Here is the input.
Amino acid sequence: MPFIQKIEQQITADPNLDHEYQWFLGIEKFNKLAPRLILGEDSPALLGGRAFGSQTLSGNGALRMATEFLVRHLNYKTVYMSNPTWDNHRLVFRYGGFTDLKYYRYWDPATRGVDFTGMLEDLKKAPKNSVIVLHMCAHNPTGCDLTREQWTMVADVLEERNLFPFIDAAYQGFASGDLDKDAWPVRYLVDRGFELFIAQSFSKSMALYSERVGCLTVVLGEGHAQDAINMSSQLVLIARAMYICPPKHGALVVSTILSDPALREECDLCIMYLLRNYRKKCLKIMNDRIQDMRKALNESLVKLGTPGNWDHVLTQLGMFSFLGLTPRQVEYIKKKHHIHMLSNSRANMCGLNDKNVDRVAEAIYDTVVN
Ligand code: PMP
Here is the structure.
């Protein structure tokens, strides 16, 4: 993103920039600002000191840190993931120490949407004190999110069965193009009084993949601000045991962008405020392009008379579309047309452009009719 380059130039031009060790849990300013992006500027949990952030090695690092804490200090053994989920979840949760890895139903191949009845049934059967991983928005790989009403019903089950919500927030802004709207599910759970963990990633929202910028946000219940201090000292030990401290550069970029406008004015850095708005615009441009490609692919498939219903290509959210091809069909499209996707037919919509979208549609048509 162009504005990231500008900020980087400014950071690296600073003659006081050093390469000292950072605090084990990263940059203080980043740890204040990143959770606010998800929980909201006026989050009572943050203001009351019962929620806090720790800089991690991106979203994946946050998942790993949280897993170690849940297993080592809270004795959780069972984790539930959506079926399907992002491939790496299983690996992180197993290596992080969960011994019982389970799935709740999520994808319904018949409707090419969320199998909400199946999901609720499975959650209702989950043993008490299980950890439930929920994608905040733009679910990877299905691109199908819960409605607000469905989140409310999931929250009821979590409460009834004493299940621990573990939120994976890797795509804030990619479902609706609006950062606050996309964070609604987490804010709702926090308002209802849940204690939870959030694994937040800046890989996508700021295109900082290789810089490994993320945050583990911990939200505790009312009256537990002291526990927040105790918990953070345990997180220090986990970070020390794994990597000592997270890297500085990317978190400096992010905290520069997220800085409080008032503070920025004080420091005569009003320009940052403009850049922050520009960031929102960039996200919107990316999001709009993905939407345009979804539209183009859907139109082309319909125009060709491709058997089946292709509405899901339009309605799914985020970067991916779960096309609904069988593993055999995926093999066929790869071999014959050299179009690649995961064997469960998760395709990255960002790979489409005006020049290739019709060719992809024709290949899908050929695959489906053969
Ligand atoms: N969660 C999900 C659902 C993801 O798709 C990803 C990245 N593909 C991540 C977490 C973690 O990404 P990163 O470690 O780069 O922040």
